[in-house]
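Q: Could you fold this chain for me?
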Amino acid sequence: MENINEYFPPDDEEGWFEHPRLRHWQELLHRGAQLQLEVRRARRGLDVDPPVLQVTIEADGPRRLETEPWSDDLHRGLLKLGMRAISDDNESLRFGIAFADAFEPAENCVGDGFFNSILIEALKQGPLAERLAEQLQQIHVLTPNRDSSAYAECRALIVGAIQGRARELTHDLEYEKPQATKILGGALAIYLDDRFSITERRELGWA
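A: Sure. Below is the predicted structure, expressed as C-alpha cells.
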C-alpha cells in the first residue's frame, strides 16, 4: 500500500502548496533567487483579456519569465510566499481581480441584484467611500431591503471579505497600513469598474 502520508502532509510543514508551480517558486526562493510578480490584463477597446500572473526570476544564469493564467489558488499561494506585486497600482489590480472570488459567498447568499444593492450601500457608508466616490457616483442600484432575513448575513460577508483582503495586505505582504489602505481602495475601484462596466459605459457614452 502506498504511504497515505503523501496525502496528509504534517501540519507544520512550511509552504505546502498544491500547485506544482508554487512549489517550484518556493524552492527558487529558498535557493536565494529573486522573484518579481506582475499581474497583466490587456485591454483592447471594449475587450479585456483574461489576467495572467508573470513571475520574473533572477537566479544563476540569465533572467527568465514564467507566466501562468490567473487562478485564485495561485494568487493565494503567492500571498503565502509573501510575494508582492511590482507596484502599488499592480497590487491593486491583483486584489481587484481577487475580490470577485472573495465576494462570491456573499453574492451566492442573496443573488446578484440584492448583493449589488448591499455592496454599494456598505461601500458608501464605509471608510473608503471618499476614495471610491468617482466609481460610486456612476453606479445606480436599488436601496436594499434591510428587513430581509439575509440582509445582515450578506453585509457581514461583504465586510468580512474586505477585512480579509486588508489582513492579507498587512499580514501576508507586510504593507504598512497607509500603503495597504491605498492599495485596498484601488482594488475595490477596479472591482467596481469590472462588475458594473464603468469604463465600457463611459467609452460608449452611456456614463
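A (continued): The chain has one domain: 4-203.
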